[in-house]
Amino acid sequence: MKVICPRCESPGVTQMHAGMEDGKVLWRVWHCKDCAYTWRDSEPAESVDPKMRPAWAQMKGVDFDSLRQVIPPARKPT
Prior knowledge:
Organism: Rugosibacter aromaticivorans
Strand order of the largest sheet: 1-2-3
Protein name: 4-hydroxybenzoate decarboxylase
Shape: globular
Pfam families: EcdD_BsdD_detox (PF26358)
Helix content: under 10%
Order of helices and strands: EEEH
Distance between the termini: 49 Å
Number of helices: 1
Protein backbone atom coordinates (compact mmCIF):
# COMPACT_ATOMS: atom_id res chain seq x y z
CA MET A 1 0.00 0.00 0.00
CA LYS A 2 1.55 3.30 -1.10
CA VAL A 3 0.56 6.20 1.13
CA ILE A 4 1.12 9.86 0.28
CA CYS A 5 0.46 12.91 2.37
CA PRO A 6 -3.06 14.25 1.71
CA ARG A 7 -1.83 17.85 2.19
CA CYS A 8 1.48 18.08 0.29
CA GLU A 9 1.34 14.76 -1.63
CA SER A 10 4.81 13.78 -0.41
CA PRO A 11 5.63 10.07 -0.25
CA GLY A 12 7.65 10.78 2.91
CA VAL A 13 5.08 9.54 5.41
CA THR A 14 5.46 7.18 8.33
CA GLN A 15 2.92 5.19 10.26
CA MET A 16 2.74 6.42 13.85
CA HIS A 17 0.10 4.10 15.29
CA ALA A 18 -2.45 1.45 14.37
CA GLY A 19 -5.78 0.86 16.07
CA MET A 20 -6.27 -2.89 16.53
CA GLU A 21 -9.19 -5.04 17.55
CA ASP A 22 -9.17 -8.84 17.59
CA GLY A 23 -5.88 -8.81 15.72
CA LYS A 24 -7.27 -6.69 12.85
CA VAL A 25 -6.07 -3.19 11.98
CA LEU A 26 -9.06 -0.83 12.09
CA TRP A 27 -7.22 2.43 11.38
CA ARG A 28 -3.72 3.89 11.19
CA VAL A 29 -2.27 7.27 12.12
CA TRP A 30 0.18 8.68 9.58
CA HIS A 31 2.61 11.58 9.79
CA CYS A 32 4.22 13.51 6.94
CA LYS A 33 7.92 14.28 7.47
CA ASP A 34 7.80 17.16 4.98
CA CYS A 35 4.78 19.27 6.03
CA ALA A 36 4.15 17.79 9.52
CA TYR A 37 0.54 16.91 8.71
CA THR A 38 -0.86 14.02 10.78
CA TRP A 39 -4.03 12.13 9.93
CA ARG A 40 -5.93 8.93 10.58
CA ASP A 41 -6.82 6.92 7.48
CA SER A 42 -10.39 6.43 8.72
CA GLU A 43 -11.14 10.17 8.43
CA PRO A 44 -13.57 11.37 5.72
CA ALA A 45 -12.27 11.49 2.15
CA GLU A 46 -12.49 15.30 2.25
CA SER A 47 -9.66 15.15 4.80
CA VAL A 48 -7.46 12.33 3.52
CA ASP A 49 -7.91 12.26 -0.28
CA PRO A 50 -5.80 14.98 -2.00
CA LYS A 51 -8.27 15.03 -4.90
CA MET A 52 -11.20 15.80 -2.59
CA ARG A 53 -9.49 18.29 -0.27
CA PRO A 54 -10.23 21.99 -0.89
CA ALA A 55 -7.50 23.77 -2.87
CA TRP A 56 -6.84 26.25 -0.05
CA ALA A 57 -5.92 23.31 2.25
CA GLN A 58 -3.31 21.89 -0.13
CA MET A 59 0.44 22.52 0.15
CA LYS A 60 1.75 20.65 -2.89
CA GLY A 61 4.74 22.52 -4.34
CA VAL A 62 5.01 24.94 -1.40
CA ASP A 63 8.52 25.85 -0.23
CA PHE A 64 8.11 25.11 3.48
CA ASP A 65 11.29 27.02 4.36
CA SER A 66 9.69 30.21 2.99
CA LEU A 67 6.74 30.02 5.40
CA ARG A 68 6.84 32.14 8.51
CA GLN A 69 7.03 30.50 11.89
CA VAL A 70 3.79 30.57 13.84
CA ILE A 71 5.35 29.30 17.04
CA PRO A 72 8.77 30.82 17.70
CA PRO A 73 11.54 28.61 19.05
CA ALA A 74 11.75 28.39 22.83
CA ARG A 75 14.21 30.67 24.55
CA LYS A 76 17.10 29.12 26.39
CA PRO A 77 16.98 29.60 30.17
CA THR A 78 19.31 32.33 31.45
